[in-house]
Design a protein that fits this description.
Largest sheet: none
Number of helices: 2
Strand content: under 5%
Helix content: over 70%
Shape: elongated
Number of strands: 0
Radius of gyration: 19 Å
Order of helices and strands: HH
Distance between the termini: 59 Å
């Protein structure tokens, strides 16, 4: 029973690591688009105030 718990915990850790790696990869791939979006958003907020 204890071994089964450790196995599940290890799988959850692997899943989280995979999701983090995917998020980082997407961030690197779409870096310029994300940067442009953030800059436009803050410019809009600055003009709004």
């Amino acid at each position: 029973m204890f071994m089964n718990f450790r196995s599940k915990s290890g799988m959850e850790l692997v899943q989280v690591a995979i999701l983090v790696a995917i998020a980082i990869a997407l961030g690197l791939i779409f870096k310029t688009q994300i940067t442009d979006f953030v800059n436009r958003t803050f410019e809009g907020l600055k003009d709004f105030s």
